[in-house]
Amino acid sequence: MRVLKGLAISLLGFLLLLSLSIFGLAFALNNTLLTPDFAASELARLNVSSIAEEVLSEQVSQALSEQTPEVQSFVAEFIDDAIADLEPWIEEQVSAITYAGYDYLLGRTQNLSLVISLEPMKESLKEAVREAVLYSPPPWLAGLPLEVREQHFDEVYQQFSGEIPSTFEFDESMISSEVMSQIKQVRQYINYFQLGYKVLIGFIVFLILCIILIIREVRGATRKIGTIFLTYGAIQYAGMSQQSL
């Protein structure tokens, strides 16, 4: 009987150590790649906001396509500066898209969609160009009174401003069916992972309870479980030390 008890405790201890090792990897994954905060910080390092600035600049340039070359050239001088001033806002929108994507991947939402207001961008561009027209006017406006220049600016701005949408809608329709199919597959894998993660935690608790029930003595059970956790910690520390070398 004592031999069987010892074998059972050894087997449960081995399973607990193995489960803790798997849990450690799963925990690290769950708190890095599957965390939107981690993804947002990594995107910030990649300077994704600069890509967004290029996209916005291109969109404004397209809106100016029907204007005269003089107007296009004049406004183009201020597009980059106006959008550069919006960098904090752009970073917020990139972060919002990241969180929306994670909400979909983690199953918190059923559809991948996000609506971003472009009014801050339009307002920033308006103020930058307006100030230039009034106080640093192009040659063809330099001789006109201030009121006339302001009226001219309002007319031109209303024309190309209407070509820029008030909102930017990011949804599944903007993604190719092939890529969307892969995203849905990843979403399903993450769902399996999350389920397995919860089951693993329950299994670890179950193993600990089994060890306690078999030993039936607080000090002995605490010593046994503590030894297993200490062994796991030593293995983890050794692994981290090897990686740092």
Low-confidence stretches: none
Secondary structure class reads: mainly alpha
End-to-end distance = 47 Å
What is the general shape? rod-shaped
Number of strands: 2
Largest sheet: 2 strands, antiparallel
What's the number of domains? 2
Beta-strand content? under 5%
Radius of gyration: 30 Å
The overall average pLDDT, rounded, is 79
Helix content: over 70%
With strands numbered from the N-terminus, the spatial order across the biggest sheet is: 1-2
Tally of DSSP helical segments = 10
SSE string, helices as H and strands as E: HHHHHEHHHEHH
List the helices and strands and how they pair.
Layout: H1 2-30, H2 36-45, H3 48-63, H4 69-84, H5 87-105, E1 113-117, H6 119-135, H7 139-142, H8 146-161, E2 167-171, H9 177-215, H10 218-244
Helix pairs in contact: 1-9, 1-10, 2-5, 3-4, 3-5, 4-6, 6-8, 9-10
Please tag this protein with its features.
245 residues; mainly alpha; 2 domains; two-stranded antiparallel ribbon; 10 helices; 2 strands; 79% helix; rod-shaped
